[in-house]
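Running this now, will post back.
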Amino acid sequence: MNNPLPNKKLVARSFGNAAAQYDDVAVLQRQTGDELLERLSLVTLQPETVLDLGVGTGRNLTLLAKKYPKAKLVAVDIATDMIRQARSNYQQARGLKRWLPNATKPMYLAGDAENLPLADNSVDLVFANLTLQWCDPRTSFAEIQRVLRPNGLLMFTSLGPDTLTELRQAWASVDNYSHVNMFYDMHDVGEAMMEARLAEPVLDTDIYTLTYETSMALMKDLKVLGASNVNSDRRRGLTGKRALEIVAQSYEQFRNDGLLPATYEVVYGHAWGGQPQFKQAQQNSDGEVRISVNQIKGRKAL
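Update: finished.
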């Protein structure tokens, strides 16, 4: 694992600035969130406490409340502005139901997945949609293991190294700096999960492609999402107009059917808390972890 770690202060500031407009362009986030919720339906689980880690604007928090109406909800995000947005959106989505005597009232906490503001063995389900890619996997998975109760469940999505490969190649025609965020591959994620002693880790990947009229439209969306470059080895200072023109010209090689593709490699994963016997991950000749997500169907929560 030699990826440059993101600047956490910059991550928090970027997502905080994005809070008000985030949902306008969060197409991928909605798709992966819905898929993650669908995968939860494969598991017999009645959690007492659910952690939405990286709650963002709170869309998934509302859906988790509907899925687990008796559960205590905890919403954590590194950006305080996102926390405020999540609280507002949750109240609006629940409407008058939030005033009912037994209505779920989430606990909102500002915090980092690498240093969770929660007690040991306090959570039955950790739901993390496109959050952990901003973290050191060893540290964040160790923290998740710490807060999970025995037989508690982690369900997450992250981004793999092929994410925004077109944009990365286009920037390579300008200079050798890192202009696009770098993410860990599935093999590194799987190793970190096992090092954290999470049980029965299961991983798979899927490719999503969004399309744009221009490369500038893509980069504007990334800025609105708060997903601009936060790598520690990024180039400082403003990017010149000429450099952006070169990027736009280089990106044209990928145009197909009149549109420019933006590829996202999404890593799906789940694991259990506690320390039962691990299922060994099958590895190919390159050492890449490949485990069928269908294994989740066989596990029942106690």
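The longest strand covers residues 199-212. More later if anyone needs it.
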